[in-house]
Give the backbone structure.
Amino acid sequence: MQIALSRSFNAFFASEKAGGILLILGTATSLLAANSAFGTAYLDFWHLKVAGLSLEHWINDALMAVFFLFVGLELER
């Protein structure tokens, strides 16, 4: 079953602005969560162990390596 999306939704995500706006929204959400009453639970979530490493370490080590690989490939292109 295919869902028909609106033209404006498709146009937004096809534009170059979409990534920047999503990053800003994610940053604002993280700042609000960290500085709210749920701040300690939010920080504890990032120290949750997955396969021997915390989520924070997975992001800092694994995902950032993938990110810089993509940046390097984009610069080469």
